[in-house]
Amino acid sequence: MQHAQETAALRHVRSVLVRAPHVRLHQLQRLDERIAAHLDGLAVAGTYGAECCTAALERPGAGEVFAAAVVAIESRDAAALDRLLALAGALPAARRGLLSALGWVSATQLKGIVSPLLTAADPLRKALGLGACRLHHADPGTTLAAALNDAATPLRAEAARCAGVLGRSALLPQLLGAVADANPQLQFDAAWGACLLGDRSSALDHLSTMAQGDTPHAHDALAGVLLAADFARAQALVRQFARAGRETLAQRRRLVRACGLLGDTHFVPWLIDLMADDTLARLAGESFSLITGADLAALDLERKPPEGVEGGPNGDPEDENVALEEDDSLPWPERDKVQRWWHAHAGGLPAGRRFFMGAPPASEPLARVLREGFQRQRIVAAQWLCLLAPGSRLFATAAPAWRQQRRVAVNPSSTAAVA
Fold it and tell me: Which of 90, 203, 260, 284 lies at a CB distance of 3.0 to 4.6 Å from 274, suitable for a disulfide?
């Protein structure tokens, strides 16, 4: 029972850490090893382990479904997996847990499981099959093109996401046809997928509109358009943000975030000044690091947190929301120390050019960030690598850490196929 509970709890924690600003790949691997150990405990327990996972489904969160699904897949329990698929059709959290389980297990363990999902009549099952292919970098073949024309919007959104991640350039016209869809999720997935496949016109226009709006996709759209656009267009968008006003905290945060993604050291003095403002200091520090590559904590460029600042999820064990605020776990930069560091290093990072982590975006420095950077930095590095080589596969920074380690050891764009 403890193995089942810990697996579910650690899966919740993992969903935060894969996008955290303070976690490197080796730290993610330690967490993944803990999850794997608890899953091993459930496997050793056999039938009783499966029963413990089933009992936990009385409160079917993503973590509980993840544990039950991994056990069902590894034990080839078709009946249990079918029940979880039915549950996924009713609960979004169950869908997330089941999809993460499909991404967690090895490719060989999915033999005989993914193919029936891809050929199922149910759009949800087909979407889960496409999601498994996306997470394992396996090409689902003609099923993907057909799914892009399906009447079910969630299936089309997953298909658009899959096409972009897998580098299916031949499907670019279909993605461009979906960027004006009324559904915001499909619109974003199609526009971002089209950018990954090389479009720098209508897809960017749609991402730019989304980035300036107040939607759940505004944050990701901002990153997408600033990375995919040429430097002049990205500069113009940041200037537009600056002219739009800085009256609200949300506007100022968007501008600070945009400066970091743009990578122009012209904004570094302004970011340093913001480090004296407790409401923006940590975000300004993160943008400064994205541009310069400076690790504020390692370089002792941080200060103690101000009194009264609390971060992290609440301590309620009944609350599934373990999400961190965007600034949580970021260092508090010491403005004067950062200023001195910048004066010593500014000569190597001239303004008017694009920098990411202290270097122009290129394969070798981006691969180094994938190996050594923090998760948020690694996500951007993976996107850069894909954008620099349209049609390549997007590196999976949320994959099990041992799978990622194998890929970065060979080539950041290397993939593993599901047989």
Answer: 284
